[in-house]
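ugh finaly. both done.
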Amino acid sequence: MTDVVVTSTESIPGYEIVEVLGIVTGNTVRAKHIGKDILAGLKNIVGGELQEYTEMLSDARKEALNRMIKEAKNMGANAVVNVRFATSQTMAGAAELLAYGTAVKIRMK
């Protein structure tokens, strides 16, 4: 198995956890772009999805997840279970997105 299996569940059907390696995290801090703020402000008046922010958050989730997976691989894991995401405002106009889970070694049953 060369890729890391990532799941929000405690177990992976068909596999058994043979070793728990520890908690792994990945994060990114993103700031709003003034141009996107202006577009979002206009969209806020008429309603609808703030697509610029949706894209920014989607990119942030991917980056945080990739960083978490890299940390798991560095520990020798081939899976991460109980994956969760959290966000927090770090300063005005900037937010952190954190991905975290438990790095494990798995094998087929």
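ok and the 2nd:
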Amino acid sequence: MPDLMLFVEDIAQEKFLTALLERMAVERQIRLKIRVRSARGGMAKVLSQLEGFVREVRRGVAVRPDGMVVCIDANCRGFLDRRKAIEARAGDLLDLVIHAIPDPHVERWFLLDAEAFKEVLGKGCKAPDAKCEKERYKQLLNDAVCAAGVQPSFGGVEYAEDIVAAYHIQRAADGDESFGRLVQEFRSWTNRQIKAG
């Protein structure tokens, strides 16, 4: 069972990515052991946790995982800027990194598949544009859940597993470049796991 370390900024990233990675692994007939290293504190905390974990592996205090998904929102800074920040801290474990860089925020990924959203909540959502306004996609997710006649407890994040279960992954990947990059990198990683196994 491949060991996958997940570095995330917040609970929205953790819930969405855990559900997505588990689903994509099952589709490839792989069972994963996902460990979450960071789930609070934003980008700075994720990068600090990543750097610290790399040091722990180097010193033999932590076990080298089979892969690491590192998620930080692009926050309108772009994929390359965020990838450089991740890679600057990945050190000896750079070959294990799978980049998850939602552009601009992970809440946008919740809204990419209107049909999945409708299947889960009873009413579809408007396909989100890509604008760089802080907190915009959190509000759009919350508003879409409310428009479906549901009062969200956690802004809609609580529906991550169900939305991902209904998701048309390839269609979402084709329609959103940042989501497509993650799907492609994860599929390449699973191919390597299959060959190694």
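summary for the 2nd one i guess: The chain has a mean pLDDT of 94.
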